[in-house]
Automatic annotation (TrEMBL):
The keyword Translocase applies. GO terms for molecular function: ATP binding. Keywords: ATP-binding, Cell membrane, Membrane, Nucleotide-binding, Translocase, Transport. It comes from Bosea rubneri. The complex is composed of two ATP-binding proteins (PotA), two transmembrane proteins (PotB and PotC) and a solute-binding protein (PotD). This is Spermidine/putrescine import ATP-binding protein PotA.
Length: 364
């Protein structure tokens, strides 16, 4: 169990699924490399769980195909796909010990007793539960129960591990600990993890690649850094983290960027790939942490005046909402340790940001 499991490639081509009149998944194509940690991220109803269930074999697509290592598995039943599955609710047998819960997939496969003993011990050692093998699930914490579910999903050496929001029932601190545990397990065993969540922090902290879904479609995909720093759509910019949106019309080109104006305020923005045409409408996404409060007379590519309408303290940062005349409410995140005095509602201030801080995005 401590040895690396060979990675298997999965290819999804044009799959769709409709339940009655509801189109849950719409023509999704996706390739997953062996050994990759891929996260499917999206709001409720985006189609991510339905897509995972089609990969697992519990739901049949209306159209499209699924291949494992170039072999068709679209109509293969779940038990013949050799995929491990971890659910939000653990799905442990309450009357069986930890050992017997983990051993269950091997017993179903009629493996020899000696092999079962060896593999269960290795799986429990992998999730650091060796000393809990004789306990019942009700005698374990939520985090320990999830570790048992992970051991059970890994014990039979699956081709892939599918995880359907496995941490959502845990509290914040325990969830963060299990995120680190999952990353460690992924590095250690080496097989592909396909992870479903609506939690942006989980997706950013754990994934090799994130697939963002909305309304049954694959909207964008990329590494966490690519999607956070260089989103191509307003949906991803606002769903994966938080963004302000500054809209306007292009007035001129300058250097490697362009000047645009909205409601009489001019801004400078570095172009993404090619400069947008003069006179065209643009939307620039701006992360709250990439803005700062600037003193009068301080140089800044962009400046915007406003008044504090509300603020919150989160220990490490202040989150301030500034009402501006030209762009409406703008959210700002400032490190609390060197922010000086707490902001005051009604306080006038000026925001500043670099031409490279924002990112031009497409509206839906």
């Amino acid at each position: 169990m401590t040895a690396m499991i060979p990675g298997h490639d999965l290819s999804i081509s044009g799959v769709s699924k409709t339940f009655g009149t509801f189109k849950a998944v719409k023509d999704v194509s996706l390739d997953i490399k062996g050994g990759e940690f891929l996260t499917m991220l999206g709001p409720s109803g985006s189609g991510k769980t339905t897509l995972l269930m089609m990969i697992a074999g519990f739901v049949q697509p209306d159209q499209g195909s699924i291949h494992l290592d170039k072999q068709p598995i679209t109509h293969l039943p779940p038990e013949r796909r050799n995929f491990g599955m971890v659910f939000q609710g653990y799905a442990l047998f309450p009357h069986l010990s930890v050992f017997d819960n983990v051993a269950f997939p091997l017993k179903v496969r009629r493996r020899p007793r000696a092999e079962i003993e060896e593999k269960v011990k290795a799986a429990l050692d992998l999730v650091k539960l060796t000393t809990q093998s004789e306990r019942l699930p009700r005698q374990l914490s939520g985090g320990q129960q999830q570790r048992v579910a992970l051991a059970r999903a890994l014990v039979f050496t699956p081709h892939l591990l599918l995880l359907d929001e496995p941490l959502s029932a845990l509290d914040k601190k325990l969830r963060a600990e299990l995120q680190e545990e999952l990353k460690r397990l992924h590095r250690q065993v080496g097989l592909s993890f396909i992870y479903v969540t609506h939690d942006q922090d989980e997706a950013l902290s754990m994934s090799d690649r994130i697939v963002v879904m909305s309304d049954g479609r694959l909207v964008e995909q990329g590494t966490p850094g690519e999607l956070y720093d260089r989103p191509r759509t307003a949906f991803v910019a606002d769903f994966l983290g938080k963004s302000n949106f500054v809209r306007g019309k292009v007035e001129s080109h300058i250097g490697d960027g362009f000047v645009f104006s909205g409601d009489g305020v001019r801004f400078v923005q570095k172009a993404r790939d090619t400069k947008p045409g003069i006179g065209s409408n643009v939307t620039v996404a701006l992360r709250p942490e990439k803005l700062s409060i600037v003193a009068p007379g301080t140089e800044s590519d962009n400046r915007l005046s406003g008044v504090v309408s509300e603020w919150n303290y989160f220990g490490s940062e202040f989150r301030i909402l500034v009402e501006t005349a030209g762009c409406g409410p703008i959210s700002v995140s400032l490190p609390a340790w060197n922010a000086g005095a707490a902001p005051e509602v009604g306080q006038s201030l000026e925001l500043g940001w670099s031409a490279r801080a924002g990112m031009e995005v497409q509206e839906a």
